[in-house]
Amino acid sequence: MDKDYIGEVIESSTGDFLAECLELNSSPPFGSFVKVAGRSPTIGLVFSVSTHSIEPNRRPTAYGKTEEELRLEQPQIFELLKTEFRALITGYIDTTGAHPFLPPQPPRIHSFFHPCDADEVRMFTDTSDSLRAIMNAPRLPTDDLLIASVRGAWMAHNRDTAYLVTMGKDLSRLIRDDYDRLSSIIRRIAQ
Amino acid sequence: MLDLSAVKRQIDRMASDQKRIQNDFFERIDLSVHEARGWSDDWKALSHDVDVSRTSWLVARLSGPPDAACPAPPRPRQLTVIAADGSQIFPDRHEISSCYLLNIGYVVLHYGTGERPTLSSRPFLYYREEDLYEEWEGRRTAVTRESVGIRRGALEFTFLADLSVKAREEGRSVVGLSDGTLILWSLEGRPPDLRAATLRTYLDAFEQMRQARVPVAGYISSPGSADVINALRVGLCPEEPTNCDRCPYKTDRRERPPEIDRGPAPLPCSPIEGVTDDLLFARLLKPGERSGVFRSQSRILNDYGPHRIGFFYLHTGAEIARVEVPQWVADDPELLDLTHACAVDQAEKGKGYPIVLSEAHEKAVVRGADRDLFYKFLRDTFVQNDIRAEISLKSLKKLAATV
């Protein structure tokens, strides 16, 4: 039994998966990489986080109290909410190494996941493949996800300026037909 | 199929009847308030009249003025409130097995500590011969919905007592709440051995809680009871002692020619008949206040020993609720205050109904879809194990009705 996991997959498909976090409000950050445990661990990029009622017919209502007051006086609330996130599948790891493309099988339901460590992040962000995956996936907050993932990858590369320049060049190739958009993205990455 | 147009005509008639009754009703409530206040100083005389009366209705025994109102004491900052509630899949002989299922939802909420609460449920499947048939007074019969309900209620209290004792052992201040009455009047007239066995479970649970000093209370929302009104009706009765079996006013009525005898009987106790206790206390209590403690005279309580049930009415701010407690809670001001403060706080937190009870219900409830899934599991498992799995033609017909 894996003790360090922070949640598990509850919906899975070829391109993305939905995961439930073990603790409320403890999703891995937007734009960060997670690794789903399995024979061939899948790598996902978090692109949507939500917290809501565990039961579809019960909606949270306003109480006019702080979270601390609610934890003391309405403790049941926090058992009736859950935090979920969706992740774009950007690659997988098998015995032959890391692959920056979709795995033959999606992660299994109820598989556990962890945040990727810096080595794993570097493994999947050395090239612009993950940027291309973000650009090509439908229904994503594409620009913000590019910004967050490049900033995260830059941290994993120890704030290496050369890495940032390479990513900037790759982005300019990917978004070469829209100068305004490209400059906005690069400006925000650098902030 | 329901003929809605036929029902609508009956609803219209019902509404017009209700309207007529309603106007007269407000006067009755005014009178009952007047009566309750009228006995405030001389409540011992009324109490005596009640104690010696023989009535055909259930009359509350008094332990103080009927119009007494006690403000809510403050709730201890740290308090653990526990509830257990049950739900079931009744035995269905049209299904592949007559087994049945009880699901007990239980909730432990710790206030003032920030600890995580427990909200959970546990199912119990009953399928053995001794589960499906019961023998009382030498008669063996298949379990009925009623007996499943009795077993469920007993299991709820076993959970409530176990959880309460455990929380108490952890050094907490605890209140145990249950949805509905603690008075098992439905056992009256049932075989003595069934009655004794059921009561034993309940009373054992009460005893465990008594020893742990955990007040247990039955919370009744929208109570329809009129025990206190009935006590005031005894007060209206000129007879000493009141004895409904020998009511001279009823006799007079019978002797009257039928063409004169129209409308309700003009008995001395009639003017407040039909009023319920909640309507009376809605006028006597302010939000947060409770009435004095009354003692129920249900016959079944003669078997309750030290756990005889008393009750008070509580203005939750949203309604008048009836809260039933065993005698040892009623007699202990500390436990009574704790129950009162807890019930008010719970109703406030739950926006009118104790949050711990509604959460226990949510955990217990077995919905239609769960029931269907349960029988699907059962069928699949039977088939996988080569057990004959057959449902009745009636069930089959319900699944696919033809024209």
TrEMBL record, chain A:
Cross-referenced InterPro entries: HerA_barrel_dom
Every Helicase HerA barrel domain range: 6-94
Pfam family membership, one: HAS-barrel
Protein name: Helicase HerA barrel domain-containing protein
Organism annotation: Handelsmanbacteria sp. (strain RIFCSPLOWO2_12_FULL_64_10)
Lineage, top ranks: Bacteria, Candidatus Handelsmaniibacteriota
From TrEMBL, chain B:
Residue ranges, compositional bias (Basic and acidic residues): 248-262
Signal peptide (residue range): none
InterPro entries given in the database record: NurA_domain (IPR018977)
Residue ranges annotated for the NurA domain, each copy included: 79-366
Region annotation (Disordered) ranges: 248-268
Protein name: NurA domain-containing protein
Taxonomic lineage: Bacteria, Candidatus Handelsmaniibacteriota
